């Protein structure tokens, strides 16, 4: 598997040595609290912790560069749309209005709106690194065992694991089709205008879909021939038992989660209001 594809990367790090169940629990718990909370202090600390763990995981920038760019573009568009459709949302939430300047028509730039959108940006900052850590350090087979270990049906667990396995394959197929298009004289390099590159990239979608459907059909038939899903239970070759590192990781996440929940009561709600 190429290192520039978003998928499991086998490395030697403390995070890789953790049980898949531990990483699943930590990812779900922290992600849920960060998505629910609007406490700037908690989101910032969670983001810093996530970046530190990302560094410990030995995940290189090249491995997450393109997904990060895509997410950043989506985040900027999301923030702009929030301001366009609800420019006074921060004022409604914090019950305070401090005008910075008047932009145009009904649009006023306020500190409360900026603070509200800062919190939304911090949500990306705190949850996206967690997703990268989980995807790039957890083997799909171990992930399936982890889901099954916490009570999810092994059929659903295996389906999720196959989906994660398929992400790098889709990227590889996209690159292969793109290179074939370029060999035919269709310029999709950075030298071509952006609109032209987007138009040519859109033409790759249909071959990619048909190729994916063929592969799905082949995998489905193979699993049926092996009588997958006929039994009520199954064993897992890739299951990893808990270790001291797992207990430490779960304890740390538990403490961080308790802090996040406690802030709900301190703030008398999800929002931290400095105004």
From TrEMBL:
The chain crosses the membrane at residues 27-54, 66-85, 114-136, 247-266. The keyword Methyltransferase does not apply. It is found in: Membrane. It is a multi-pass membrane protein. Pfam families: CbiQ. PANTHER family: ABC TRANSPORTER PERMEASE, PROTEIN ABCI12, CHLOROPLASTIC. GO terms for cellular component: plasma membrane. It comes from the Bacteria. The lineage of its organism: Bacteria, Bacillati, Bacillota, Bacilli, Lactobacillales. Keywords: Membrane, Transmembrane, Transmembrane helix. The keyword Transmembrane helix applies. This is Cobalt transport protein.
């Amino acid at each position: 598997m190429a290192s520039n594809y978003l998928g499991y990367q086998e490395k030697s790090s403390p995070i890789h040595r953790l049980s898949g169940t531990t990483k699943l629990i930590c990812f779900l718990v922290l992600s849920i609290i960060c998505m629910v909370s609007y406490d700037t202090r908690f989101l910032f600390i969670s983001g810093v912790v996530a970046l530190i763990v990302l560094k410990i995981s030995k995940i290189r920038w090249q491995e997450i560069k393109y997904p990060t760019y895509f997410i950043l573009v989506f985040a900027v568009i999301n923030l702009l749309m929030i301001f366009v459709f609800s420019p006074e949302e921060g004022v409604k939430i914090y019950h305070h209005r401090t005008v910075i300047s008047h932009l145009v028509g009904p649009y006023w730039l306020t500190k409360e709106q900026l603070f509200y959108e800062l919190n939304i940006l911090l949500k990306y900052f705190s949850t996206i690194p967690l997703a990268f850590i989980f995807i790039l350090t957890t083997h799909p087979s171990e992930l399936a065992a982890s889901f099954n270990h916490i009570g999810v049906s092994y059929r659903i667990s295996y389906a999720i694991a196959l989906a994660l396995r398929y992400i790098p394959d889709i990227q590889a197929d996209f690159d292969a089709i793109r290179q074939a298009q370029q060999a035919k004289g269709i310029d999709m390099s950075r030298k071509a205008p952006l609109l032209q590159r987007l138009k040519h990239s859109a033409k790759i979608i249909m071959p990619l879909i048909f190729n994916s459907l063929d592969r799905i059909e082949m995998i489905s038939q193979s699993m049926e021939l092996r009588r997958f899903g006929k039994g009520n239970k199954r064993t897992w070759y890739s299951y990893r038992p808990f270790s001291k590192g797992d207990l430490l990781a779960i304890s740390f996440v538990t403490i961080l989660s308790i802090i996040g929940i406690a802030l709900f009561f301190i703030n008398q709600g999800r929002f931290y209001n400095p105004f």
